[in-house]
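Deliverable D5.2: sample structural annotation.
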Amino acid sequence: MSKYATCAYLNAEGKKAWSDVFTAGEVPIQSIIPQSATLEGIGIVERVFLVDLTALTYQQQDAILGKLSKLSGASKDEILKEILKVGLPLRVKFTEGCGTSKLGFFI
């Protein structure tokens, strides 16, 4: 059973990229229904889950900002502003499934 009400499970590629932040391989997400998004810097449409920021610890949030800052060259503050505006995407290709324990979701 996951410690999150709704989560995505990282696959091998996702664990390689994010296991230092999500040590159990589970990422809290807002919904098990993926969305289409054009990711900045990539320019192609991908299917993504939106990460549930409210379920993350401060240490996880800081680690994510640090990793994205290092990858993009943007400051943590700039990245945080963008995340708060549009959300934090997790590519579906980094996952091997998802689940929810929210009652009534499938009714």
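Annotation notes: The chain has one domain: 6-100. The radius of gyration is 14 Å.
The annotation will be released with the project's public dataset once the embargo ends.
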